[in-house]
Amino acid sequence: MRKGFSLLEVMVSVVILSSITGAAIEIFRLGYRAAAESQNRTIAYNLAREKLEQYSGIPLNYSGSSEGYGAIANFLNFRRVVNVNYYAYGSYLIQITVTVYWDSDRKSQSFTTLKAFY
Asked: 0.70 cut: is pTM over it?
């Protein structure tokens, strides 16, 4: 009686092990990518919220602004654009939209708020 494994059995087990290892590596790679994207979205959210808070006390005749890449301290890969739109409905209403871009403008996150003057 022969003891040990044949070449075919070894090759099949190597293929199975390689497939399982490849799938596990792909899962970790996708998880890392999702975590990085989530981190960038969180940074964009916080940068937009920060700018909206700065604009909460703006005067009635203020226009928007833009900050290019590298202009935001500690966030060189992000830029912000602020748009201010004025509406008059008996009282004055201002719509403030902050858009944060990253990844060379391929990705963005926008936030809008309204401010009323009575």
From this structure: yes
> Are 49 and 111 contacting, i.e. CB atoms less than 8 angstroms apart?
yes
- Helix/strand/coil percent split, the chain, to 5: 45, 30, 25
- Give residue for tokens 């409905």: 89
For 99-111, what is each residue's pLDDT tens digit?
A: 999 988 899 999 9
**Integer CA distances (angstroms), 58 to 25, 67, 115, in order:** 51, 17, 9
Beta strands 91-102; 78-89: pairing state: antiparallel
Q: In angstroms, what is the C-alpha Rg of the chain?
A: 26
Quick one: tokens of 27? 């899962």
Q: What is the C-alpha separation between 35 and 96, in angstroms, rounded?
A: 30
Count H helices, E strands: the chain? 1, 4
Residue carrying structure tokens 């309204």? 114
Residue 101 neighbours by CB distance under 10 Å: 19
